[in-house]
Design brief:
By secondary structure, the chain is an alpha+beta fold. The chain has seven helices and nine strands, in the order H-H-H-H-E-E-E-E-H-H-H-E-E-E-E-E. The chain has helices at 3-34, 36-50, 57-60, 64-76, 108-112, 131-136, 155-169, and strands at residues 83-86, 91-93, 96-98, 103-106, 173-177, 185-188, 190-193, 199-203, 216-218. Helix 1 (3-34) crosses helix 4 (64-76), helix 1 (3-34) packs across helix 7 and helix 2 (36-50) packs antiparallel against helix 4.
């Protein structure tokens, strides 16, 4: 690699490997604050899988519902909300001529909320990602990591990481959105809450293996 290529790859690792996961978790905590029944079900699953002990690598794969919640949060608020590709050759798509070298944008945010692809698309519903529901859906209806030969190389790691972080933090703390705050999604390469996500952090009842975290304010 040239120095320029090396620098570009390092910047990509920082943005694609850390910021996107942080944003996925930010939006997930926001949605959980609005849907306490979903959060309660996650807590039940985490307790059943871990037995109240600290999370171990073997537990992560068993947290199926927790993973569904992550999938659904990334459907509503995909960290990479748009993907741009350059046409390698002339092609016709949906009645439009795309010439070689032209940039083509795939609006993932819009695809994830398209009424032709999703029932009641603006509603938060982790049941959409139950195994049978996933099998019945078009493979390109859900694209938080892109698709095809250039699908995100870190997809599996990001899902494991997000699931593990949620399973570690949720039994220890409760996060609730600041009263009156309505986050506005804003696309700046990634999909961010425009004015951050001010949330109140409260410790849950002491659990075996839960980290000691003092109450306070958290904001992304």
């Amino acid at each position: 690699m040239t120095d320029r290529e090396l620098a570009d790859n390092l910047l990509t690792f920082i943005a694609a490997g850390h910021e996107t996961t942080a944003l996925a978790l930010t939006w997930t905590f926001y949605l959980l604050g609005l849907h306490p029944a979903v959060e309660a079900r996650m807590l039940d699953e985490i307790a059943a899988v871990t037995g109240g002990k600290p999370l171990a690598p073997a537990h992560v794969e068993a947290l199926g519902y927790t993973r569904q919640v992550v999938y659904e949060a990334m459907r509503l608020y995909p960290p990479a909300a748009i993907v741009v590709r350059q046409a390698a050759r002339n092609i016709r798509i949906g009645g439009e001529d795309v010439t070689s070298g032209m940039s083509v944008s795939v609006p993932i945010y819009a695809v994830h909320r398209h009424r032709a692809l999703w029932h009641d698309p603006d509603t938060f519903d982790p049941a959409r990602f139950e195994p049978e529901a996933v099998k019945a859906r078009h493979r390109y209806a859900y694209l938080p990591f892109g698709a095809g030969p250039r699908i995100c190389i870190g997809m599996t790691f990001a899902l494991m990481e997000s699931t593990a972080i949620l399973a570690t933090l949720l039994p220890a703390i409760r996060l609730s959105l600041r009263a009156g705050h309505v986050p506005e999604p804003r696309l700046r390469v990634t999909l961010r809450p425009a004015a951050g996500m001010p949330m109140r952090m409260e410790r849950r009842a002491s659990l075996s293996g839960s980290p000691a975290i003092e109450p306070g304010l958290a904001a992304h």
